[in-house]
Each structure stands twice: as C-alpha cells, then as structure tokens.
C-alpha cells in the first residue's frame, strides 16, 4: 500500500485522522494533513481506504 | 410536464423523512430541472453524483456568480465583510481565509475540549433535573449547549456568558423581528470586536487569541477577526441545537435505537450513532447551491456555464445505492460517508466540534434521564419547515 496526500487540496476537515489516527495527523498551525506513515501495515488498509473515501477535498490517494 | 418547485414539502406525519417528491425525482433521473424563485436550476438527486460534482472546481459557491440558485432564506445579515464571507467565496481566496480558522477545529484540539463540554452538558442536565417539568428541551438544553461551547471556543469570559447567550438566541430566533435580529448581530459583533482587542493585549489558548496573531501580522483586521467569530456562532449554534433536539425526538420515536445509546459506554458505538443521526436527519434541508463556471458534460447531459446546481443532501443521504434500507434509522450502520456536512472544499469547518458535542450529549442525556419522554403529542410539536435549518421550535419533555 502506498499513500499520497495533497496538502494544497486539503481543507482540514480532520476526517482522515478520525478514520486512521495512526496514519494521518494534522499540522498545528492550520490543521492541514500530515502523513505519519505512507506504507502502513495491511491491518490498517480498511481504515486508510475509509479515510480516502470520506476526504471532502479528494486529497488522499491510496495505491494498493 | 411542469417544472417542479424546489424546495418541496415533507409528507404529513413524516417529520424525519425528506419530501416524497425528492425520492420520486431521485428514482427518475440523476439531474432534474427545478424552479427556484424566478430561476431554474439542476437538482442533483443521487449520492455519488452529489459528491462528484461538489468536488468539481468548475462550480462556484459565489452567490453573485451568474446562475447561482441563491437561497433568500439565508441569515439576512450574512455576506458582509471578509470574516463572514469566505463560505461564499471560491479558492484560492476561500482557502486562504478558511485556513486562518481551521486550527481550533483540529481533532486533537477538539478532543482537548471534551472534558469542558462534558461539564457544560452535565451542568445543564443538573439544572433540568432540579427544575420544573415538563420543560422545553430546546430552550433549556439544546440551545444553551452549543452557545456555551462556542463561548469556550472563542474564549468568552464566564461573566459574559449570559449576554452572549441572550444575544445569540435572539440572532437565530424566528419570532424576532429583522430589527431585533439585526440588533443582536450588532451587539455580538461589537462585543467580539472589543474582545479581540482584549485578546491582543492578553492572548490565551482560544480561537480569537489565535486570530490576533493574524491581526498582528496584518493578514486580518480586528473587524475581520470579530466577523469570523460571528460566522462561527451563526454556523454552529442553531445547527447543533437542532441536531440535539430533533435527534432526541427521533430517538424517542425509535425506542430500540434510544436503547442502543442507553446501553453502551463504548465511544465507537456512540460515534457511529452520531453519524447515523446526521445522515438520517439532515437538518440543512435546503440543499447546497452552486453556480456553473464552465460547461460540464455529465451523464450525457451538458450542464452549461451560467446554470445553477442544487445538491439536496437530505435525499442524497437516503440514496439506497449508498445506504441500504435508507429510511430506517439504524445506529449500528456504518454511515460515515454521509454528506450531511456537505462535500468538497466547503464541507463544514466545524464538523469535528459538532461531532464531539453530539457524542457527549447523546451519550449523557438519555443515560442520566432514562425515563425522558415527550410531553406533547407528536402532531403538536412545531417543526421548522420554513427555516433554513430544519428542526423543532420547541420540544416539551418530561421524565
């Protein structure tokens, strides 16, 4: 699994953090997405896909 | 065939369901021409299409863009000044302004507020239990919760909470005259302007103090910072209050679902219940609205520049292709992909705070008052059919 985030597109809704807290974080100054792990273990795959699906800005791409 | 007029009426006796005409149109076609005041616009009826188009940068949220199917029922004082205007702007200016107020709504910052929100909710329930019954839950609980939480968020000193609550209630009152609402708006704007001045001198950890950094850097005026405070109040007060009151009424009408919340102390179950109630109730029931900036080829249909689009999230969230058995309230379903907060770059900024408040309320109120029940017939409860935010005007309860 390979995750790519686009910080320019991100609108800081925080939904990725709620979906997969071990993979996504938010930067302190404005809540924009920070990727903690671009290749997380398989057992987090469902959460990561959920994060990408609920991102309102389509700022998360997951390549399996 | 005549062009249907939007918005449509709900069915008698079905206060939690979208208008039946919307379901009919959803079944018929993905795009339907509707009449909105003196204009026509395209209604995007299906869930997947709503998400796809709301994320399309060829659409504009600017109400002055040609073809924008604007909603005259909007808060009459909105649209003035930078602070309140970014929800009606497009990127990149929208993104620049929005990012100035996103930090306080970060998941970790919102989680840090949870104990304070729990205290507010517990305090109001203490007052309910000590007071007379029946009582109007809207007035005594649902409206004060978000008002006090916004005080906490903005850093309004405790001594000013009453002033803040009285004026914020007046600001969203449907029975107040436009002059009274305008006066409340002015009072709050002036109050927040002064508070920004105080925070410039003595900053704390609150949202307004954070904005004073931008004021010092010359990115915002004091007036803009105060305006953003008013916007957050407008956006977060009535919406949350209605989710509390309408959500409570829906749960009282679905006792097996109420029991789910009464019987659990699992935060995941509570969080899932909040998502399902957001999906099911759709208190923003007049649709998201956009103007088309460039021609869009969609599903064999040309949507032309200068036309308007309306996204009725209420029927989107009841689309059976996204939510099986969509008209059933099922707190155990996975509803996290709902569009109750909208979709695209304008999706609700305050959603993490709204979720947390609702999680605290729904996990506390019905456990502390397990015999809570309606103190009026359902048919006597006044619903806000005409409001831009759906809900109840009042909800008499007893226990």
- Write down how many β-strands of chain B occur, each being a DSSP E stretch of 2 or more residues: 10
Strand content of chain B: 5-15%
Q: What global shape of chain A is seen?
A: globular
Count of domains of chain A: 1
Largest sheet of chain B: 5 strands, mixed
Q: CATH homologous superfamily name of chain B?
A: Cytochrome P450
Q: What are the secondary-structure elements of chain B, in order, as H or E?
A: HEEHEHHHEHHHHHHHHEEEEHHEE
Beta-strand content estimate of chain A: 15-25%
N-to-C span of chain A: 4 Å
The strand count of chain A comes to 4
Helices and strands of chain A, in order, run as EHEEHE
CATH class of chain B: Mainly Alpha
For the biggest β-sheet of chain A, the strand order reads 1-4
Biggest sheet architecture of chain A: 2 strands, antiparallel
Function (chain A): Ferredoxins are iron-sulfur proteins that transfer electrons in a wide variety of metabolic reactions.
Cofactor (chain A): [3Fe-4S] cluster
Keywords (chain A): 3Fe-4S, Electron transport, Iron, Iron-sulfur, Metal-binding, Transport
Protein name (chain A): Ferredoxin
